[in-house]
Amino acid sequence: MFAEERHRLIGDLVTSAGRVSVADLARQLEITRETVRRDLAQLEQDGLLRRVHGGAVANGTTSTAEESLSVRTALNHAQKSRIAERAVDLLPSGATSVVLDAGTTTELLAQAMASQVPAPRSAELLVLTHSVPVAYRISTTGTFQLEVIGGRVRALTSAAIGNSTIDQFRALRPDIAFIGANGIHAGFGLSTPDPLEAAVKSAIVACARRVVLLADSSKLGQETLIRFADLDQIDTLVTDSAPEPGLAAALEDADVEVVIA
Prior knowledge:
Elements: H1 3-17, E1 19-21, H2 22-29, H3 33-45, E2 49-52, E3 55-58, H4 69-74, H5 77-88, E4 96-100, H6 104-116, H7 119-122, E5 125-129, H8 132-139, E6 145-148, E7 152-154, E8 159-161, H9 163-170, E9 176-179, E10 183-185, E11 189-192, H10 195-207, E12 211-214, E13 226-229, E14 236-239, H11 245-253, E15 257-260
Parallel strand pairs: 4-5, 4-9, 5-6, 9-12, 12-14, 14-15
Antiparallel strand pairs: 1-3, 2-3, 7-8, 10-11, 11-13
């Protein structure tokens, strides 16, 4: 196979999978790992991908890359909706305090709660959130109890951030928290690109009696800049497809329940 053909094939694989490994490429293309590394170096120089430890990722898949709320709302919408609807079933019975983190999947959870939880039950639920879109979804029902956690609102995510937001969460002990993440990785844990949002997420994880992570399969195996929690700090992962074996084993070792929506 000529180098141009290999480069085209590698580019297609990175685009479709998001990440490729040197070992897998060497096996699939029947070439040495040294040749694969030279090909990846050339493709990186051409701006077609970015090399990482053990392989390469799609160009633009950086540790600080973060789409706007409007863009993220359209990404994997069907999968996120299934996750949100399944997460409603995890709400405890009786009077319950519930933290809803900022994010598109947690916003869909708020929407699902508004449509699926009947009025007598919803009146027992106190929802706490620092997300403007989530607060709006919950407030329009008029039946849930709602407490908005304040702070400076970050325009990109419409979420409150800063020390006052963190202090308010630290003073709470909610029954359950539903959180989002930009990446969940076997070794690195849960991560997000922005340090201020990471600090708020850490405070939520630390304060809640039970933590449920809502993450569609595009987040599985990914690492972004800031780790805000280890795997053993969450109780349940709700996702749309089974994690790959390495992550599945790490989740099992951390005693994390995996729910497939």
